[in-house]
Design a protein that fits this description.
alpha+beta, three-stranded antiparallel beta sheet, two-stranded antiparallel sheet
């Protein structure tokens, strides 16, 4: 005689035999929209853009820049200009473009930089001891700003 399997037992059996989920592919570019927008020389407003993940070189090269040596606050301008791959129709985002951003847009980009570059370092995979469900948690404890470090380029 065949015995029926209860709903929760069937679910547990299906869960136990299910293959592990595929790892998420590494995202290296992230779209954003500026709160105000960059106004170019012809008066066109550029709000949408793309920022890529920073490399170690991106954080090291600006330290050799004379403008950064004279004024450490300029570090964020150079660093942001290195990692923005597009701003509206502008594909050559250089320090001059970043200098002409509204202060609120620069602050937005600094925060965005921190968040996308701290991701991977502040998230951990955990398993609930009660239900055995796996999920990711944010360990930064810093809210939307991500990891530690007070200035852009610091961890």
């Amino acid at each position: 005689m065949r015995r029926a399997i209860s709903g929760s037992a069937a679910t547990a059996t299906a869960t136990a035999t299910a293959p592990p989920p595929e790892p998420e592919p590494l995202r290296t570019e992230f779209a954003f929209e500026l709160p105000r927008g960059y106004v170019d020389g012809s008066g066109t407003v550029h709000r949408d853009g793309v920022m890529r993940l920073a490399t170690a070189r991106d954080e090291l090269v600006p330290l050799r820049d004379d403008r950064v040596r004279e004024n450490s606050a300029y570090l964020s301008v150079v660093l942001i200009s290195r990692v923005i791959t597009r701003l509206g129709t502008i594909e050559d985002v250089h320090p001059g473009v970043v200098e002409d951003l509204f202060a609120s847009d620069l602050a937005f980009l600094q925060d965005f930089y921190r968040r996308i570059n701290a991701e991977g370092h502040t998230r951990a995979s955990v398993t609930c001891p009660a239900c055995k469900e796996s999920f990711a948690v944010d360990l930064s404890g810093g809210g939307a700003g991500g990891g530690g470090g007070g200035r852009l380029g610091e961890s």
